[in-house]
Specification:
Layout: E1 2-3, H1 8-16, E2 24-28, E3 31-32, H2 36-46, E4 51-58, E5 61-68
Antiparallel strand pairs: 1-2, 2-3, 2-4, 4-5
Length: about 70
């Protein structure tokens, strides 16, 4: 799992997809996020996806964010 913290280079992207400061990122499309490199690789692959899901823990609650990309 990874914790999203404010960071100038990532704020715009993460806020656009609905992440909030302090969110604990657990999975993208079912893939466990066990290190930062894996997370960035998966985010890179999302650019080619038409649908994806991100599972986070927010304020001690499990939250699933579902997305459909419209060209």
């Amino acid at each position: 799992s990874l914790i999203y913290k404010d960071n100038f280079s990532t704020v715009a992207l993460f806020e656009k997809i609905g992440l909030k400061t302090g969110d604990l990122l657990n999975r993208i499309n079912g893939y466990e996020l066990d290190n930062p490199q894996k997370a960035f690789e998966l985010f890179g692959k999302l650019r080619l996806s038409s649908q994806f899901t991100i599972d986070v823990k927010r304020d001690s609650r499990a939250v699933t964010l579902d997305y459909s990309v419209v060209p």
